[in-house]
Amino acid sequence: MSILDQILLFVIALAANLLSALSGGGAGLIQLPALIFLGLPFGVALATHKVASVALGLGAALRHLKENTLERRFAGFILITGLPGVTIGASFILQVPERGAEVALGLLTIGLGLYSVFRPSLGQVYEPSHRTGHGYLVGGAGLFVIGVLNGSLTSGTGLFATLWLVRWFGLDYKRAVAYTLVLVGIFWNGTGAVVLGILGDIRWTWLPALLAGSLIGGYLGASLGIRHGNRWIKRAFEAVTLLVGLSLILR
User: Fold this and answer.
1) What is the largest CA-CA distance in the chain?
2) Most buried among 5, 6, 141, 185, using CB within 10 Å?
3) What pTM does this model have?
């Protein structure tokens, strides 16, 4: 790639991942279509994007870990329940048509945004809930399903994890976004990248610019979210979910 192409990739990754780190997901709204537009086949673009998204998690983690808001046992629970789903989703996505699934996912994503819009107090206060055996069972099943979506369809699935943590487990938006960016960004996306890399192909020459933009964007977006608080993050979440949903339907 030329220097100009690398600069373009860096700017795309910076913008996409700053927005994602602020709202708790949605980097694929900009980054994945851009990779396809620039000439990569869907499977190669998806695998390359997954690798770059790990840098988003690292950048956000550098900022969020300073706040010390993550509970280790709960973080482990998210990994244990979500990673098997990611592996399953990433294993079959290259063999199935994506268009119908994208439209369905787009409608559901818009529904998430509207749900948050019409619940003004949602995610504004940290009120842990469903921390019982049954609660963890249902919550884990939800994270498993979201993991399948994360492994197979990359656009916006982090937003599902963010809202599920808010709605079911009673996290505020700031905490939920921290868990999503660190655990989904690094470990879920990393697992998906490994599986897709084994089954498909990764465009390694495109990664330096994408990784740099993702790392810096993740850090800056996380900093903005921490500085401005839950209400600002909630509004960003709602805007991104609606944009992601429309993008998936109209693409």
Assistant:
1) 55
2) 185
3) 0.83
